[in-house]
Amino acid sequence: MILAPPTDGGKAKIPKLKYKAGANEMIATMNKEKSKALASCFFPAKPEEHDLGEETKYPKVCKGVERITREQIREQLKKTKPLKALGPDGIPNIVLSRCADLLVDRLYVIYEATLERGLFYKPWKVSTMVVLQKPGKPR
Hints:
Strand order of the largest sheet: 1-2
Number of strands: 2
Strand content: 5-15%
Distance between the termini: 29 Å
């Protein structure tokens, strides 16, 4: 455990870690260094945002989304996987899934207005994806 004191004896220790910092190969021996090495490996820096400009061609707009129901919202909230990483809003999925009944009316008003007016909050168009290779699987 990274936060455990070095004299805890009974808890598992993380061995020295080899990692790359740029072109240099480094070895992390202290817990703080190991934390930073693991964090940089599993959560790389976000890529720069690119403004695609006005001439960018997008696919045709999806048709058929005219109305949304409270039940659809409730179903989607309950389907969220509770222990996944936080999104850009910082709201844990477990809150969304367990509080679906409390949130559905408020979200309904927001989504209805969004669809009715054709306005979409810019941060909703942004997502972050972290791709991790599973051991024994092809790249």
